[in-house]
Design goal:
The protein is α/β, with parallel strands linked by helices and 273 residues long. Strand 5 and strand 6 form a beta hairpin. The chain starts with 7 loop residues before the first helix and ends in a 9-residue tail after the last strand. Among the domains are: 69 residues, Roll (Ubiquitin-like (UB roll)), CATH 3.10.20.310; 105 residues, Rossmann fold (3-Layer(aba) Sandwich), CATH 3.40.50. The strands form 2 sheets. Strands 6-5-4-7-8-9-10-11-12 form a 9-stranded mixed beta sheet, covered by helices on one side.
Length: 273
Amino acid sequence: MARNRLRPEHFKVAKQALDTALMWSKPALKTLAVGSVIGAVIFGLIEMANRAPYFSITTFDAEATPHVSKDELAALIGLEPGTNLFKFDVFQAETALESHPWVADARVTKQLPDKLTVSLTERQPAGVLAMNALYVVRADGRPFVRVMPANALGLPLVTGLTREDFDADEARAAMRVTEALSLWRLYGRTSMAALRPATSVHIGEGGRLDLMLGKTRVGFGLEGLRAKLERLEGILDTLTERRADAAYILLDDVGKWAIVKETSLAQPMMGAL
């Protein structure tokens, strides 16, 4: 039993070890205490700012676009009276804004103490696609929003595709639309467009394009659109000289012939009072 008793020198060594540990731990304990106090102060300030009326959003700076009103913007981002600037989620607001079909890009910024700013980039319509209804399409040929006929005025009109075409192969269908819009633009740059404005572009079987000039259908086929436009100009000049019109003009792909179904030129009705 005597062998298991602690000797006095053992107590001395243990006391020295404890004193050394306390000496080294005092700075750390002080740092921990100070850090806890600072953390508590910061947390308290954050909580105070989150509840303070001083930081309630009172200035909403947002420019309405042709298709998105300022009130609609506020509703999309969930802005209500008394909304706290610090609690407001900018990322969530931008995501909500970009879910609107007419919004291509949205940026939301905060400015202390009470200002929220919204800036938008609106999608630019490239044309209108007639399927079961009218849909505005982007430059890449993809439809993004349904519109009423009154909202489609002045935009190139594309026909011939269905919703099933997009469901089956969206990329191919969109490419067909961009090809149709390209033909519309090319024709619009010619001198013919002033006298015979285009009314629509029809996408036929295999992507063949027909340009409608009023009641005249011009079959462009698939290739060589620029060369065919030059040939079309000569044909229309000839029809004008002959005071005639055409039901349809079919241009071959090799540039050697054209089929023209000539009709009499409609004469305006004359009368006198």
